[in-house]
Request: fold
Amino acid sequence: MTNRQSQPEFQSGEDFAIAMDERDPLKRYRQRFFFPKTANGDGVYLCGHSLGLQPKTAAKYIEQELQDWAELGVEGHFHAKNPWMPYHRLLTEQTAELVGAKPLEVVVMNSLTVNLHLMMVSFYRPTKERHKIVVERGAFPSDRYAVQSQIRFHDFDPATSLIELTPRPGEFCLRDEDIDSLIEHEGDDIALIMLGGVNYATGQAFDLARITRSGHARGCVVGFDLAHAAGNLQLKLHEWSADFAMWCSYKYLNGGPGCAAGCFVHERHSHAWALPRFAGWWGHDEETRFEMGPNFQPIPGADGWQLSNPSIVSLAVLRASMDIFHEAGMERLRAKSVTLTGYLEFLLSQNNSSNFSVITPHENERRGAQLSIQIPQNGRALCDRLAQEGIVGDWREPDTFRVAPVPLYNSYYDVFRFVRRFAAAIG
Ligand SMILES: Cc1ncc(COP(=O)(O)O)c(C=O)c1O
Reply:
């Protein structure tokens, strides 16, 4: 996941932020999103790692579907402007482009934790010898619950079948060599490596190509939760050869709260009919789906893991956002993101307060947009106070204030104003 790009010489004055915004080739995209209203109109939204902003075009995309439903009723499945039967396919090309996959390898369906379970049904196949799952310590709770429950479902015990990759004492983030070493030493016992692309708490981005290589070399299946990576990092899932991945669409992808999630299944599994899978009619061969036959014949590729017909309204919003992503391009977005987050880190480093520290890795290739600021004393109250003033990041227990300048809609001036307010509050 290398992104070795040289940084401009950052400066601490306001005029630097203004000048950077002026020459930002992506600045016009900011106008395409709604920003939450604040009392004095000078809020800063740095929370796209939690819930992305609403594209101004979202309502138009939804209205099209509401209108077709009103005018056509059930006929909309086939005769809407964008027929609902194959509606999810409208997202396939752009989703594949976004995560570096082939169209056959991606689908938008369900929600993230549901997709994680569906993937583990197929790809976590524990045996007496090889039954362990590797997660990172501090993985998002839903991932942990899902993984633990899958282990129990197969009559194993998380106490002996769950391995947590743990940073060295006194460190917050994992070292690549420690991940390699664990896989090397315990590889024979590991059925599945299931890590986040970017850890939600520390903001650490993992080297997914390297982990996949190490895992496969030891015979492990490798899957990733890309909730904090999709729309944030440049991903090359096909090339990196991960077995599966899934991500939600409401963070960097701006699909709105609870929006349908993405899922990737590598091409080499596209015709793996012998793999167990939970089936539903939307994963059944489209040619014969409405023959209503008794036997399930999956669609080749990721589409074959679908269960139910999707919420068109949810997909409509995501289309509005994905059209913008397609236009802006992930490469350009990532290039801006590296500079924007570097600038945030620089401004924070100008502050000598010992009341906080940034725990996210410093290297560009080891992080995305997010910086996690550890505030050991009274951090939650500070975060709440800033939120009341319209300065929006979020708090994760026990001591982490997360902020992410999102390259699609945040400006350098946003970052400047955030740090000014943060510095005043932290004392
Ligand atoms: C890393 C990670 N995994 C899983 C989830 C759970 O997502 P969902 O509620 O869409 O299943 C989240 C939600 O924020 C997350 O950040």
